[in-house]
DNA sequence: ATTCCACAGGAAACAGTGGTCC
DNA sequence: GGACCACTGTTTCCTGTGGAAT
């Protein structure tokens, strides 16, 4: 790139001549004070939690909705406001916020609760270390801490609560919903946020009844609502006349088709703007939105592949190489690849498991077919372009030999 | 109607790692 | 320092399944 072009880029940037004026508002970390189209939900949650101000225990809440429907943002807004209110009134309230997808085991959830509540900075007898304690002991320490504080109110917020129940059952929820019988003076309330409406079916009836004292469903945004959200966001995020209405409409239409996910819509917009800026275009147009869609998809697949384990990568190559994609055939090719690079192959059971993981990630598609007397099997196909696979695996010294093997 | 294939996938156990507690 | 704990990734064992062939 010539010095002139570089100079012009830097000059434009220095003079603020970029399309985006406020980049932060196009990221998922940005939560606006008031979420569009969520006034009813915000009001109901605020009502439910406001009893804390009178020293009473709020109902346990369960919030349902697809990703990007604003559940978490609404809860964060309400709890933030409530926290300032309670501190003004001198009421001691803690609202630990846990994401059960990040804290992906039962014990990690307990550890995060302790960290969030600042228990690990208090007396040593209450500490919950990140390993070494039994689940029971960790739970007891948290409850003892609350009991010891006499008048401490805890509103425990668990995001992606369905993921916690899927992996670890409902023991933790049982303990916390029952804990109020043991605590005198203070209390624990629970807010669960879930992407799946059916997750309640997996709960013990006792947990179900106490957990879902109050339930709310966040409906997906419609295309029209997404348009308005994007228009609002674009006003804050972009310089004047830097984005066409057609681009916003297309963005809303794409995200609307995919579950009405506002986060996805904003992400599309941000990447499109970055592409347009890089092209030094004067405006974000429809073509940038389309390019953005392709880029997001390609980048995600590339990153997943690149960060996969060696065996997953070998398996992808085996699927790519196989003729009809039968489980048996794929496993055969996979094993021969392993022998080729002197690796001990994993068992077929484990490979089946990896295949189903890859299917969930959308990297491959597997359909179960029954061949009658010739058994039941899967037809496995790679769904991403082989160029993405080659570029992701090219840098791997051992695997690159397989890429060009017969 | 029954048989039989080639798996799918659940459950339990295990190995290795990294930690606490007494 | 030994007993105990949790986690991840894996293996082993086992039961269940759809539908063509018999």
Question: Which key features would you list for this structure?
Answer:
alpha/beta, globular, DNA-binding, Rossmann fold, two-stranded antiparallel sheet, Helicase, Ruva Protein, domain 3, Arc Repressor Mutant, subunit A, six-stranded parallel β-sheet
Question: Can you give a write-up of this model?
Answer:
With 406 residues, the protein is an alpha/beta fold. It folds into 3 domains: 39-218, P-loop containing nucleotide triphosphate hydrolases (Rossmann fold, 3-Layer(aba) Sandwich); 221-304, Helicase, Ruva Protein, domain 3 (Orthogonal Bundle), CATH 1.10.8.60; 308-404, Winged helix-like DNA-binding domain superfamily/Winged helix DNA-binding domain (Arc Repressor Mutant, subunit A). 52% of the residues lie in helices and 11% in strands. Strands 1, 2, 3, 4, 5 and 6 form a 6-stranded parallel sheet that branches. The chain has a two-stranded antiparallel sheet with strand order 7-8. Helix 9 (223-237) packs across helix 10, helix 10 packs across helix 12 (286-306) and helix 12 (286-306) crosses helix 16. The model has no long low-confidence stretch (mean pLDDT 87). It binds a DNA duplex (22 and 22 nucleotides) through residues 105-108, 129-135, 137, 309, 326-328, 346-350, 352-353, 356, 368-378.
